[in-house]
Write a structure and sequence with these properties.
210 residues, mainly alpha, Glutathione S-transferase Yfyf (Class Pi), Chain A, domain 2, 4-stranded mixed sheet, 8 helices, 6% strand, globular
Length: 210
């Protein structure tokens, strides 16, 4: 399999970390949807990262759909999703919050790139409020554990939340008050210390923030 996309995308990184955690071999092609348009469009004309090229050449996209496919490949005995329904419920809630934090961080950055006369402050206020709300809702879960968010083993909820946190700290650190989230920071520190996370840095010289 081949994973296409830059690791500074939280969506690409969450897939890459999951593949490593599940011991699924893959090749990574760090193509940018902005700087590598001709090469990327040959693989996926929609220019969507992550893109996964399956062993048979079928092209998949969207991180959550790719991860659902990966889970089917590995089976229940080697899964990043809990089997128990209550634990599964908690996991998908936290994954949803983490993805929202990713989405809103991206929107914050895109708004900043608009010409000043094209920016709409009420919209900026809205997405910033949504970003803060996501971490406000994640923090109680993170604060109540010294292990992982759902079970005693790392799940996709931990991967998604921690990838989101580092991405926000990278591009929208001024929007959140990071000191308000000691639980998330501690969780992220535990995750980034694992061999699985260390194998998928955002960039070669990147250092995580806690």
């Amino acid at each position: 399999m081949q994973l296409i996309g830059m690791l500074d995308s939280p969506y690409v990184r969450r897939v890459a970390i999951a593949l490593h955690a599940l011991n699924i071999s893959f090749d990574h092609s760090p193509l940018s949807v902005f700087r590598s348009i001709p090469e990327f469009s040959e693989i996926n004309p929609l220019l969507k990262a992550p893109t996964l090229v399956c062993d048979d050449g079928e092209v998949l996209m969207d991180s959550s759909l790719i991860l659902a496919y990966v889970e089917r490949l590995t089976g229940a005995s080697n899964s990043l999703m809990p089997v128990d329904i209550k634990s599964y419920q908690r996991a998908i809630r936290l994954i949803g919050l983490g993805i929202n934090a990713c989405d809103k961080s991206v929107q914050v950055e895109y708004e900043r790139q608009r010409p000043e006369d094209k920016q709409y402050q009420p919209w900026r206020n809205r997405i910033q409020t949504q970003l803060i709300a996501a971490y406000d809702q994640i923090e109680p879960y993170a604060a109540e554990t010294s292990s992982w968010l759902v079970t005693q083993e790392m799940t996709q909820a931990d991967i998604t939340v921690c990838v989101a946190w580092q991405f926000t700290r990278l591009i929208a650190d001024d929007v959140i008050e990071s000191s308000r989230y000691p639980g998330i920071a501690a969780l992220s520190k535990r995750a980034e210390a694992t061999a699985t996370f260390k194998s998928v840095p955002i960039a070669p010289d990147w250092q995580p923030k806690f």
